[in-house]
Amino acid sequence: STVVGLRSRGTIKGSNKLRDLAAGNVDSQSLATTNTVDNNNNNESDTSWNTQQIAIASGATVMILSPVIVPIIHVLLPPIIPSPSSVSFTGATLLGALSYIIALGDPTDQSNIIAGNTSGALGEGVEVGGAVSRIVGRTALQTAKASAPRVRAVARAALDYDTTTATLEELKNRVDYLSRKTLELDDENQVLRYEVALFNAVEDVSSMYKLEELKDLARYNGVRGYSTESKNALLRRLVKEQVLKLDLTPYFERLG
Question: How far apart are CA 221 and CA 251, in angstroms?
Fold first, then answer.
């Protein structure tokens, strides 16, 4: 009688139950039984689906799996029993529609026409098929519900992977760009160091040459456009053209 009384007061808050337990009005076993009943009711409400949802899930599952199941059934059945070895897309769709219609005939749900006439018009065989179809539908819905967190986790992981891959690709491209830029700057720095070393070397040795001598060297070696150049400019040009040779090593060492 205590358990029945607790069930009738299923809406009492947990604090009231603890208060009754502390006062000695309810024993711990009755309280545990009540909590189990409440949890079962919550679980049933979380996994309750109407007939339409179950029928849709059953039809979709049959349509998707029939191309796989039909050949397996054909192999398992003895040759004396005729059965199709495969099913087309149209056949799979018809099987799915049939499963949907049969699953609607739930004898516990009198809110639709098929459910109300199942026992009288469709017969016991169809009732059995409807029960199987509803089992398929409920199983599909339960599987989908149980798999939803995993699917979301996989989708999130795929999105994170794509984001990470894109970020790594951007970093790789950035590193390649910076590497090329560094090589270009290094080449420019070497050219500038050569120009500075050559300029300093020519400043030191230009007094050893006369402009006319440098022009004769340029003319003899086929260097053009020298007539308007100054002595130091012509001397630098002759060094670049390898007509004259200057040791620039000390001047590079000064630059560090």
Answer: 27
- Indicate the residue type of 209: Y
Contact 65, 123 (CB under 8 A): no
Convert the pLDDT of each residue in 143-188 to its tens digit. Answer: 878 877 877 787 787 777 778 887 888 888 888 999 999 999 999 9
Residue with tokens 């189990």: 36
User: How far apart are alpha carbons 65 and 75 in whole angstroms?
Assistant: 16
The amino acid sitting at 21 is L
CA distances from 256 to 152, 193, 200 (A): 61, 10, 14
**Residues in contact with 93: Cβ distance below 8 Å, sequence separation at least 6, in sequence order:** 63
List for the chain the helix, strand, coil content (%; round to 5).
80, 0, 20
Integer Cα distance of 35 and 41 in angstroms: 10
Q: Place 63 in a pLDDT band, splitting at 50, 70 and 90.
A: confident
Any idea of the CA torsion for 109, 116, 130, 144, to the nearest 10 degrees? -30
Q: How far is CA 149 from the centre of its chain?
A: 15
Pairwise CA distance, residues 100 & 137, whole Å: 9
